[in-house]
């Protein structure tokens, strides 16, 4: 591993980089208590620094009690491992661009806080009447539906409905190739537990949904990014990463990509699958925004037939984040092994949530809700885009649908600085580098158009941009 692959150090020096690399390996359990550290020569070569730099770094860590020197034997990790911290596994980011911090701000926000940076719809945009009917129906269900664990695969009638819905996107998945989960996040977590091990390399889009980064850190893998274009991943870069890094897994959205709103083109999809087959790559396709599309876009799972592609999804964005119900669709022998893993991790699936989702999907109200929601989001998208454009904040593309606008600030402005200023006014934004593994999206912000209708947002954003431009001008002078 070269120096460019190491986390940023606290002091920015080469010695600091060495120390941070060792701390990160200890935090991630790559180096367990009592484990011998790489030799000074080997680590100097791996980090592309001098041996004296490694010696000084090791000496400082020994002085801090992090490692111990054993005469004639080398350096070893001292004591017991510290409590596991996901945040310590990646580069140390300022809080404004730390995905955990952004998530906490959005989830903890009170009623008076504006949340244009959050990833969900306002409660009054969701089908509350349908949910209440589903709750009443659930209250009249047989006792076992209210009290028992669900079956290992999950509620059979719901899996049948999901199979029919997936067929509309060209995906042939029999109900026994679909397993219900507690959420889309749990679905991805189970797939990661099944397919990867600590130290493996996993490929993500740059930018991508920031919780992909957080979850992969928890699995202690090496994350690499590929630039995302308006038609999908940059194919030249994609092939180069596969050639040089040999990732085990690629995680992506195909339709209404988060955060960019882009849609995968058939040409790029075909090339991605050809390369996946060539390099033995498995793809996880997160299809959580499927119902937000005005017309179905290409799906990797459809082209592939669920051979190298695993599809996951949930209803947290379109129906309710409180009714936790997701799914995994994969080849049959993988589903069999995923069932065992699911039983080990959570034993069963919540049957009550599945019954509620099934009730809403079957009574016809969900289709009407989504038809109206797409129209409402379209109006909000146009209004938000026009308002931001008039301020000099330029949408990267005009998405086909969905709730997200990926926007670029004028030159000289930094989105994390803007986010910090608006947070002081009880407005939570999502700065671009939260989504960017390479930290190259400092001028971007993701706006949730459903959460961006309040005039206070644009007033505060205008003030912050003006202050940022003034500060930038003073700096240049």
- Label the structural class: alpha/beta
- CA-CA gap between termini: 40 Å
Number of distinct helices:
17
Mean pLDDT: 89
The geometry reads as globular
Write down how many β-strands occur, each being a DSSP E stretch of 2 or more residues: 14
Strand order within the widest beta sheet = 3-10-9-8-7-4-5-6
Helix content: 40-55%
CATH class assignment of the largest domain: Alpha Beta
Question: What amount of the residues lies in strands?
Answer: 5-15%
The fourth-level CATH homologous superfamily of the largest domain is: Type I PLP-dependent aspartate aminotransferase-like (Major domain)
Computed Rg: 24 Å
CATH-defined topology of the largest domain = Aspartate Aminotransferase, domain 2
The CATH architecture category of the largest domain equals: 3-Layer(aba) Sandwich
Number of domains: 3
Instruction: Give a short account of the largest sheet.
Output: 8 strands, mixed
Q: Can you tell me the residue ranges where pLDDT is under 50 for at least 5 consecutive residues?
A: 1-11, 89-93
Explain this structure.
44% of the residues lie in helices and 13% in strands. It has 477 residues and is of the alpha/beta class. The chain has three domains: 3-88, Arc Repressor Mutant, subunit A (Orthogonal Bundle), CATH 1.10.10; 95-119 and 367-476, Alpha-Beta Complex (Aspartate Aminotransferase, domain 1); 125-363, Aspartate Aminotransferase, domain 2, CATH 3.40.640. The strands form three sheets. An eight-stranded mixed β-sheet has the order 3-10-9-8-7-4-5-6, with helices on both faces. A four-stranded antiparallel β-sheet has the order 11-12-14-13, with helices on one face. Strand 1 (67-70) and strand 2 form a beta hairpin. The longest helix has 26 residues, at 365-390. The chain is globular. Mean pLDDT is 89; it is low at 1-11 and 89-93.
């Amino acid at each position: 591993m070269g120096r460019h692959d190491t986390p940023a150090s606290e002091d920015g020096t080469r010695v600091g980089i060495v120390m941070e690399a060792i701390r990160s390996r200890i935090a991630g359990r790559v180096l367990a208590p009592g484990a011998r550290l790489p030799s000074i020569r080997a680590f100097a070569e791996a980090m592309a620094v001098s041996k004296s730099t490694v010696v000084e770094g090791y000496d400082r860590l020994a002085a801090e009690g992090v490692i111990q020197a054993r005469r004639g034997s080398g350096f070893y990790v001292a004591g017991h491992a510290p409590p596991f911290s996901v945040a310590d596994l990646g580069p140390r980011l300022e809080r404004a661009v730390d995905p955990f911090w952004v998530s906490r701000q959005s989830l903890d926000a009170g009623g008076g806080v504006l949340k244009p940076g959050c990833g969900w719809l306002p409660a009054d945009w969701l089908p509350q009447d349908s949910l209440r009917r589903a709750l009443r129906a659930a209250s009249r269900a047989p006792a076992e539906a209210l009290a028992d664990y669900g079956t290992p695969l999950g509620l059979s009638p719901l899996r049948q409905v999901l199979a029919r819905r997936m067929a509309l996107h060209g995906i042939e998945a029999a109900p026994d190739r679909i397993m219900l989960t507690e959420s889309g996040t749990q679905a991805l977590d189970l797939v990661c537990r099944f397919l990867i091990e600590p130290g493996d390399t996993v490929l993500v889009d740059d930018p991508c949904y920031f919780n992909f980064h957080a979850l992969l850190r928890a699995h202690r893998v090496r994350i690499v990014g590929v630039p995302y274009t308006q038609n999908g991943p940059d194919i030249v870069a994609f092939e180069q990463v596969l050639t040089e890094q040999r990732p085990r897994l690629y995680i992506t959205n195909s339709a209404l990509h988060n955060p960019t709103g882009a849609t995968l083109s058939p040409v790029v999809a075909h090339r991605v699958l050809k390369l996946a087959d060539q390099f033995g790559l498995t793809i996880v396709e997160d299809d959580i925004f499927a119902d937000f599309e005005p017309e179905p876009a290409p799906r990797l799972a459809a082209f592939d037939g669920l051979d190298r592609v695993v599809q996951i999804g949930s209803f947290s964005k379109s129906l309710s984040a409180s009714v936790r119900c997701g799914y995994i669709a994969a080849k049959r022998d993988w589903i069999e092994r995923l069932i065992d893993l699911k039983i080990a991790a959570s034993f069963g699936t919540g049957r009550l949530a599945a019954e509620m989702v099934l009730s809403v999907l079957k009574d016809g109200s969900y289709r009407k809700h989504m038809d109206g929601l797409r129209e409402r989001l379209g109006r909000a998208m146009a209004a938000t885009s026009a308002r931001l454009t008039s301020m000099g904040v330029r949408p990267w593309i005009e998405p086909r649908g969905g709730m997200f606008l990926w926007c670029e600030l004028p030159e000289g402005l930094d989105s994390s600085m803007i986010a910090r200023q608006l947070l002081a006014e009880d407005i939570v934004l999502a700065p671009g580098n939260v989504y960017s593994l390479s930290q190259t999206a400092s001028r971007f912000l993701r706006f949730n158009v459903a959460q961006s209708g309040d005039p206070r947002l644009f007033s505060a954003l205008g003030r912050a941009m003006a202050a940022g431009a003034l500060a930038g001008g003073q700096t240049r002078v």
